[in-house]
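Succinyldiaminopimelate transaminase structure dump, as promised
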Amino acid sequence: MTFNPYLSKLQPYPFEKLKRLFADVKPAPAYPAISLGIGEPKHPTPKLITDALIANLGGLASYPSTAGSDTLRNAISGWIARRYGIPAPDAVTQILPVNGSREALFALAQTVINPAACEDGLPLVLCPNPFYQIYEGAAYLAGAEPYFANADPARNFAPDYKSIPDSIWKRVQLLYICSPGNPTGAVLNLDDWAELFALSDKYDFVIAADECYSEIYFKAEAPLGSLQAARALGRDDYRRLITLSSLSKRSNVPGMRSGFVAGDAELIRQFLLYRTYHGSAMSPSIQAASVVAWNDETHVQENRDKYIRKFAQITPVLQEVLEVSLPDAAFYLWARVPDKLEMSDTEFARRLYEEYNVTVLPGSYLAREAHGINPGQNRIRMALVAEPEECLEAAQRIVSFCKKYT
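structure tokens r here:
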């Protein structure tokens, strides 16, 4: 029996590594388990969405269209226009519903990577480092290789693209960028986008802008979006740009698997062709509930306010013992383990779990060693997705743990 040889290149997911790290550990029974490890929204799903889903269960009797309903595409286009203050993208040619941004992030690479077009070795998929592991897997299974651009704390965790040599850029066919970032929460500004668009024009690669955290932010001004940046820079056709977003974090519906891609009409056309064969059409029932979600902002503001209050409460508590600051956006704290603790990120996570039954994710599990360093090393990611009381309890245990070793 033979298998796709690229499967052997896939690394275990971070949570598999965490499971192995904890395999022989028995957490302290005096403390109830609290997990800050997985970025899965825990706030309640809004009733208007569940009501819409139940009211449209009749859609289960119909085959869905890969392109999605006109109503859904128009709802997404309208939301983009309202959210970013730009003309509504064409609902037919520039919008495509997808089953969550994760599925589309992976499938997009299958559409745009062309190994035969690379004259010098395998094509490259450029990824931020640390990164969402789907980017790496998508690269390998499309017949390409990932190239990691390390996050620079001095640049608000943006990669230094100027340091990448011309010989690398010539092989890049796809660039993934996450803004707001996972795990750093950093947001790209207009200058950052201008740099990326200029590189895309020069080297002819596609930009996949992962914006699934765009609606969780802590400042008065909402994060700049890639479509918004393109318009501001005169790129009204969104050439070589695909934006990906999702309802999962915005509306607390990760189980619905509902999102969209938007941007370059030719890319959307080719992606629709791929997805028609891929069999990844969204259920009509989910489409109907998604329309309701995209058309309502009240529940989104309530959700955001909850995160704002939570981060305002938790961040100062953790700053007593960790090197951590409020991010631009998203629902993670990306903390550096202080040198005085004299333990690695993996040791920190393991001991914290054993002694206080709190789970955090080692930062090194979210990155790869590249250019001589692992930029996630000696950092931990904490997902503040649970209710405020539970997150505060976890923070207080972390403080106790750190003080024990200092």
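The radius of gyration is 21 Å.
lmk if u need the other ones
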